[in-house]
Specification:
Bound molecules: adenosine-5'-diphosphate, magnesium ion
Structural class: alpha/beta
Largest sheet: 6 strands, mixed
Number of helices: 10
Strand order of the largest sheet: 7-8-9-4-10-11
């Protein structure tokens, strides 16, 4: 395992009596050469976990092994093998990006300027401006270059794609795939399902400081239900009684949408009784819908957020 946490727990103390458990007995394994998505709504404990991996804050109890070393005891040695991108990058405001890159290169040693230029080009990032002049999306690009430029074995990225436009997100995804092809490992956090769905091999779902599930993205997307939309003319029989059909919605007078699982045969036999089928569309459920179906424990944590379509 590249990352292994053992009963990792963080309780934040504030004042004399205040205490808040942000992470509760986390046992998480990340394998070599995978892109692992750490998914959870805001406040779930993602950044808390990542800060402990980087030894920025200390666990209340439990421990983390990274690349066979102890994340706390061996943090200095580990930093050479890890590329880290924080959720919010705060660097010297008046310094130019290129100088920041060179500074980091000097501290780490062996700065590969050709590779830095290649990264900047692919990300369409102009390195000649001062840090304070960059938009949040451009700060993210700088953060990515700083995380990638020493070709680390492990990338730990805290919400790397928030603020990136869709085109840059494609570039980011491509970069991550290349890193995986080289056998390196990526651990990234996100609160947006579609992002992790696009690149991750496995996903861990964190809610309220608890790891709720760890699944292969592929297994999830092949969950056995579909959305079906039918456009028809004239009469269509009542589908709500057909085996496997649920949540029937008449979108308008000529379109019906429903959820479907199981064998198609009973559905198709019933549909032959319709006057005319103009269009038949099946859609795979989104990860969000799958998670809701599989893991919703009635605590409404997710339900509050489902209004935002893509965010859990
Ligand atoms: N330094 C801190 N002191 C007290 N509470 C904190 C501190 N940092 C984070 N928290 C709380 O811990 C919880 C998890 O935060 P965080 O790890 O930042 O979540 P995420 O990154 O998933 O949005 C939140 O409720 C947050 O308010
Ligand atoms: Mg966070």
């Amino acid at each position: 395992m590249v990352i292994q946490t053992h009963n990792l727990t963080k309780i934040y103390q504030f004042g004399r009596k205040g205490a808040f458990k942000a992470l509760d007995n986390l046992n998480l394994s990340v394998k070599e050469g995978e892109i692992f998505g750490y998914l959870g709504p805001n406040g779930a404990g993602k950044t808390t976990t990542i800060r402990m991996m980087l030894d920025i804050i200390r666990p209340t109890s439990g421990r983390i092994e990274i690349l066979g070393m102890d994340a706390q005891r061996d943090s200095v040695a580990l930093h050479h093998h890890i590329g880290f991108m924080p959720g919010e990058l705060n660097l010297w405001k008046n310094e130019k990006a290129i100088n920041i890159i060179k500074y980091f290169g000097r501290v780490r040693g062996n700065l590969d300027m050709a590779y830095v230029k290649e990264l900047a080009e692919r990300l369409q990032f102009d390195m000649s401006k001062k840090f304070r002049e960059y938009s949040s999306g451009n700060k993210r690009k700088l953060g990515l270059i700083l995380a990638l430029m020493h070709r680390p074995q492990l990338l730990i990225l805290d919400e790397p794609t928030s603020g990136l436009d869709p085109l840059m997100q494609q570039t980011f995804n491509q970069l991550m795939r290349e890193i995986r092809e080289e056998g390196r490992t990526v651990f990234l956090s996100s609160h947006v399902l579609s992002e992790v769905q696009a690149i991750c091999d496995r996903v861990g779902i964190l809610r309220g400081g608890l790891l709720r599930a760890v699944e292969n993205v592929e297994d999830l997307t092949h969950a056995n239900f579909r959305w079906i939309t039918i456009q028809y003319d004239g009469h269509i029989p009542d589908l709500s009684q057909v085996a496997g059909v649920s949540e029937v919605t008449k979108v308008n007078g000529t379109t019906v949408k429903f959820r479907f699982s199981g064998d198609f045969d009973p559905l198709l036999r019933t549909l032959t009784q319709a006057d005319y089928i103009r269009h038949f569309k099946t859609q795979e459920p989104t990860l969000e819908e799958i998670f809701l179906a599989f893991y919703d424990d009635g605590q409404n944590v997710m339900n509050d957020n489902t209004k935002q379509e893509v965010a859990i």
